[in-house]
């Protein structure tokens, strides 16, 4: 009597388990943090930074002269200013670690004060008959636009939330400082208005004209400010 041979049974394959949606989201966040941490390590460790460093090449074209303007201003004084800008942007419903930025920026620049001699008319310059006395009436000194010095202006610290850092990766200007630069220029301009820069410019202009006319033989030179519109 033969014993029936049992056929080997194949193991039952279990269906593959799907990763839940929350796990996928958590994995994506972890990957983003790893990339950000790696970038931070590259900026902190000098050796790694040199290994993955970048090369800068200037392929700019030649500068073209667009126009020429005649200037009748006498640049009589220049003021040097410095301001520390603390600019913070917060999201209403998100914590700063997720969305928000804060930049501490030192802005240094100059503001020029000038007297526009081109506004003088015939009635604003009077000379006596024997050409020994002259009276000049000039416009009040004015201020030029603030000019930031890129060599003396710099960002002290930058703090950005996670979403802002991700946005920087896809931005044309990831570390743009346009907002703080504009704010620094505005503060420097306001400081120049409150300073004695315009008074110094008028004093220097008076001294320049007196010296110039005295060398031409004038014994008495009187300079006033407050020219009338022609």
Summarize the model shown.
By secondary structure, the protein is an alpha+beta fold. It has helices spanning 21-44, 46-51, 162-169, 178-194, 197-215; strands at 73-90, 100-116, 125-127, 133-138, 142-143, 147-148, 154-160, 220-225. The strands form two sheets. Strands 1, 2, 5, 6 and 7 form a five-stranded antiparallel β-sheet that branches. Strands 3-4-8 form a three-stranded mixed β-sheet, with helices on one face.
Plain-language structure description:
The structure is a single chain. The protein is 32% helix and 27% strand. With 230 residues, the chain is an alpha+beta fold. Strands 1, 2, 5, 6 and 7 form a 5-stranded antiparallel sheet that branches. The chain has a 3-stranded mixed sheet with strand order 3-4-8, covered by helices on one side. A hairpin with a 5-residue loop joins strand 3 and strand 4 (133-138). The radius of gyration is 35 Å and the shape is elongated.
Share of helical residues:
25-40%
Number of strands: 8
- The backbone outline, from C-alpha atoms, is elongated
Low-confidence stretches: 40-45
The largest β sheet comes out as: 5 strands, antiparallel
What structural class do you assign from the helix and strand content?
alpha+beta
Pattern of helices and strands: HHEEEEEEEHHHE
Distance between the termini: 135 Å
Whole-number mean pLDDT: 76
The portion of residues forming beta strands comes to 25-35%
> Gyration radius, to the nearest Å?
35 Å
Number of helices: 5
């Amino acid at each position: 009597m033969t014993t029936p041979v049992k056929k080997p049974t194949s193991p039952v394959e279990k269906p593959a388990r799907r990763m839940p949606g929350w796990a996928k989201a958590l994995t994506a966040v972890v990957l983003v943090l790893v990339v950000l941490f790696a970038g931070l390590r590259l900026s902190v460790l000098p050796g790694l930074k040199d290994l993955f460093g970048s090369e800068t090449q200037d392929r700019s074209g030649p500068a073209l002269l667009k126009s020429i303007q005649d200037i009748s201003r006498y640049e009589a004084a220049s003021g040097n200013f410095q301001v520390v800008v603390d600019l913070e942007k917060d999201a209403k419903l998100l914590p700063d670690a997720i969305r928000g930025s804060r930049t501490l920026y030192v802005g240094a620049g100059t503001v020029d004060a000038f007297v526009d001699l081109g506004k003088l008319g015939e009635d604003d310059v009077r000379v006596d008959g024997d050409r020994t006395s002259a009276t000049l009436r000039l416009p009040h000194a004015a201020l030029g636009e603030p000019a930031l010095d890129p060599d003396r202006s710099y960002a002290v610290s930058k703090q950005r939330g996670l979403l802002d850092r991700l946005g920087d990766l896809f931005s044309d200007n990831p570390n743009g400082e346009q907002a703080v630069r504009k704010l620094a220029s505005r503060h420097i301009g306001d400081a120049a208005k409150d300073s004695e820069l315009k008074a110094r410019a008028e004093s220097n202009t008076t001294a320049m004209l007196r010296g110039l006319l005295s060398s031409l033989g004038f014994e008495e030179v009187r300079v006033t400010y407050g020219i009338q519109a022609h």
